Amino acid sequence: MGKSLVQQARGRGGPTYRAPSFNYLGEVKYVGAQFLMGTVVDIVHCPGHSAPLASVVYENKETGLLIAPEGIKVGDHVTMGGDPQLGNTLLLRDIPEGTLICNVESNPGDGGKFARASGIFAKILTKGKKITVMLPSKRQREFSPACRATIGVVAGGGRTEKPFMKAGIRYYKMKQRNKYWPRTSGTSQNAVDHPFGGKRSSRKGRPTVAPRFAPAGRKVGKLHPRKTGRFKMKKVTA
User: Fold this and answer.
1) Tell me: the pLDDT tens digits for 19-68?
2) Which CATH superfamily is domain 162-221 in?
């Protein structure tokens, strides 16, 4: 039997479940493609970003937001291009191997997609026709030499080490980005809200494999998996 699940309501993208981006300070991306020099005028906090942001005024009177690297302060000068120094943004082909970088572009000109959360960094491993970068997940990925990145480690490290302590603080933290919290398991919900719901017992013990041709409100649990149950190793006989 299909049911109206909260995942379906959120996935529709209505205003109730939309992130309040009108409260964010703006989009964090690189300004222009040519050589520019700018001055950090403020270090700001945006609800939509876990890392501190640097508000920069460039020499052509443009303003922009950058992911603030650790050690940068108000009054520092940053450049688009130039020497590989803290806070400067360069093409990957101009950054030496072994340099710690952040806010790496996926494609040239997209403004930065990788290594943007607080306290993390990427690292340039090898350079050739493609630039090999080790991402924060330790996965290695090849980028175009024309992609840009910022020198340094993202500021705000240690943010996750401080506990929330109170559920109310966690509630407002998740609400400012409209994250789904708290998460309620399907077995704890009512029967009308979830296929696993109901109060017949604390442990239902029903199979969590959804039928292959189940309606949208029934597709929860394992969706036509290849294998279910405990995996047993076969004995190898010589």
Assistant:
1) 899 999 999 999 876 788 999 999 999 999 999 999 999 988 889 999 99
2) Ribosomal protein L2, domain 3 (4.10.950.10)
